[in-house]
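Final report, results section. Input specification for complex C-07:
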Amino acid sequence: MIEFRAARKEYPDGTVAVEDVDLAIEAGTITVLVGPSGCGKTTLLRMVNRMIEPTAGEVLVDGRDVRTADSAELRRGIGYVIQQAGLFPHRTVLDNIGTVPRLLGSSRRTARERARELLELVGLPESVGDRYPAQLSGGQQQRVGVARALAADPPVLLMDEPFSAVDPVVREGLQDELLRLQGELGKTVLFVTHDIDEAVKLGEKVAVLRTGGHVAQYAEPEQLLAGPADDFVTSFIGRDRGFRRLSFADGDGVVPGEVSTVSLGDRCTADDWVLALDSDRRPRGWLAPGTTSDGPVTEDQLLAGGSLHTRGAPLRGALDAALSAPSGLGVVVDGRGSYVGVVTAQQVLDLIEQRRRQVSP
Amino acid sequence: MIDELVRYFSSPSYREVLLSSLGQHVYLSLVPLLLGVLVAVPLGRFAQRAPRARAALLGSANVVYTVPSLALFVIIPAVVGTGATDSINVVIALTIYNAALLVRPVMEGLASVPGHVVTAATALGYRPARRFFAVEVPLALPVLSSALRVASVSNVSLVSVGALIGIGGLGRLFTDGFQRDFLVPIALGIVLTLLLAMAGDLLIVALRRALTPWQRAGGR
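Structure output:
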């Protein structure tokens, strides 16, 4: 558990980076600090491991004021992941990961053994262990950065915009990976980002910070999207918040309907939209109404399908599946990716409307 | 010429002079280089960390480097109180030159270490001294090694000048040869000085390669 008590950082020129912040971060959760640049989020993060000392107030980790600890020893007990990974270019991946165990007095051999375990934990092949950071992709470097932070098994992990320098596809993979890791490890994670989507996706609690180091709102992501505390939070969350909030709306009420299907390789004349499936009943694409084929249906005749909605997943996926399909019919699949049925945007909207009435009659 | 070479090498005393001159030349080139590094590293670190003192420090380093070597060789005994022909004068003078030459590259080398790497090292729990030697110095080596090559070559050539004030080294072969109108030691002096300069240079290049394996590992 991390606690900020009236923590304040004021520079000699009078700039206030963090103004009297009170914040309690629960143990074993991911808490995200999000805000525009200059809102003091990184300053706040760095107070935890004494990279920055508060000018007033205090920061407690597990009830203990961090200033009572020796700063180097304190830092060895707190994982830290930085933007661009901050890997040591002159050390191999294994030696990078083994840094903190070495600082804590482990032999090089023990540290490298531990590093190998961590490579596996963060999903990297053993073969990268002897490479230098410059030989890795940006995404791999970030994984090594996470592995290095976890090497001494610290209870607290600080992450300072760790995924902002990689491309969106890789970033999404890294975010999923972090959530999976967190499910295994249950660390107390304090995560800084300027990206509200990332905050909402990763955070169990999100603190929105405003320029000048004020906490504008501290809430669970869904509450944040449903009820922004003020104009600043509203504008920071952005225009799509209604749609984004559907990420938290339970998709159990979606009842998939039927549509004509054809297996690739079979013959078919489409009077209406027909969904083509492969031999594992996985959706491959759509046949438009009026398509006639002389022979078996092939991939060439298909219109690309929209996104797929996994049954039971939040409503955002169901609505997006319907909106992105050329037929207007969102394809619902099961956990293995096999066809279950279809859903229309209207069905999703009706479901949302129905729930709203239940909540506020 | 060949006869003269044979005559030169058949004389044990000449051979001995040659070897001791060579040995002394190596010693007088190498020791100031090492001492120069020892002086330049803290000064360069200071220049990197204290922007206000930087201009003054680098400016005076430049001025020191413009003082003619012969003048320095003569001034040092007067200031330090060493004997006029003591080889320590050359060591002191070249140490000063090397330090002056290396301050800027040390500063630039340390400044070339990416900020996020230093931040990460601190955040992982390195204390400043260990971080300096384990992270910053190794990463500054590529920049620093180019300057070391310049310094080593310049030392080899400057030690020759020491012969003018009666200090050993390959320069003695020149003064000897000129005094006795004997071409062989002069030619040998020139060739050995060149070879020594090249050997020093190659040694530093080899050391750099051995110490910076990550630089050869190539991109992905």
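The domain at 2-212 of chain B is CATH 1.10.3720.10 (MetI-like fold). The first helix of chain B runs from residue 2 to 10. This concludes the modelling results for the funded period.
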